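Reading a protein record of the kind used here takes little practice once its layout is understood. An example of such a record is reproduced below.
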Amino acid sequence: MRIAIIPARGGSKRIPGKNIIPFCGQPMVSYSINAAKASGLFQKIHVSTDSDEIRQTVETLGLSVDFMRDPALADDYTGLLPVLKWVVDEYRQRGEIYDEICCIFSVAPLLQSKDINAAFELFHKHKSMYPLLVMTRYPVPVEWAFRRDKDGFMTAISPSQLNHRSQDIPEAYYESGPFTIWRNTHLLSENPLSGKILSYVMPGDKVVDIDTPEDLSRAELLFRIIKNA
């Protein structure tokens, strides 16, 4: 069976209440829930939260939260993989065994179900052997990057590459979310990303990492453009 896990802990600092903040008329997390539902792929959609406020919001959206997250997994330092493993183990103890896990981020208002479906097609094409991450191409070569010190002076990361034309430098990609796909056996590995990783590529105008109010404004603008296109 297949489960979508949407991590949504409380306590966001840069944007308070980020997971349920109103976004274009709906709570932020609703977009991830709706995309998961619309994909038709999942026997279970679970929002993993330690917050009663988030739980109540999720339940007003028509989705039951079967259990709350262990507070030990809701601090600022715990990564997502321990949370996914814990949720899968909790369901196993309840007699529900999930072989495939899709982690959908709660702050992903631009996510569309067709991308989840297409990514799973790719995942299954490779016999579900490799973790799948969503990637986006850097808009310029990473070799052209600089680091800026506290006084405003810049240092090139790869000085020898600055004079190379972009077409002569291989494209580079970064993990952009808004979801990842795993087999349950991947979660048992100490470092499941140390081997081969499968990629599903999404364009930069469909993914926004919302960490600041400026990111939020950009995401709202992109959402309205896409909706009215």
Q: What stands out?
A: The chain is about 30% helix and 20% strand. The mean pLDDT is 94. The beta strands are 2-7, 22-23, 26-27, 44-48, 100-104, 132-137, 146-148, 154-156, 173-183, 198-201.
